[in-house]
Specification:
This protein is of the alpha+beta class. It has a single domain, classed as 2-Layer Sandwich (Beta-Lactamase), CATH 3.30.450. The protein contains three helices and five strands; from the N terminus they run αββαβββα. The chain has a five-stranded antiparallel sheet with strand order 2-1-5-4-3, sandwiched between helices. The mean pLDDT is 93.
Length: 114
């Protein structure tokens, strides 16, 4: 699992990678351990809020969410019953980040299925 996650570190400006349960519990991380639990809990809660919002609009459940700020980008991607969270600094190639995150999420989902 860690080998698959490490593939995202090949993208310039990626700063943190987390694989979390939808309940917010961390499964694997490549981030400072001091912030892993808080980061995981907030990411899961945020994705759940986006899911409620898109369902209220009759759009179905999201597969991926992207948040940008002045200094960072956070992408949350569904991987079966897990969430792949990637944090990068502003300036990251968003197209590559999106495609690689989707590819890694599919690999993780396949690995979890066995």
């Amino acid at each position: 699992m860690e080998k698959i996650l490490r593939q995202l570190l090949n993208i310039d400006l990626v700063a943190a990678i987390l694989l979390i349960g939808k309940d917010g519990l961390p499964v694997a991380s490549m981030v400072d351990d001091a912030r892993t639990e808080g980061h995981a809990a907030h990411a899961a809660a945020t994705f759940e809020a986006v899911t409620r919002y898109t369902r209220q609009l009759s759009m179905g459940a999201p597969r991926q969410a992207l948040f940008t700020t002045d200094t960072a980008v956070v992408m949350i991607t569904e991987a079966n019953d897990m969430l792949l969270v990637v944090e990068a600094r502003t300036g990251v190639n968003l197209g590559r980040l999106r495609l690689e995150t989707l590819r890694v999420a599919r690999l993780l989902a396949a690995q979890m299925r066995g």
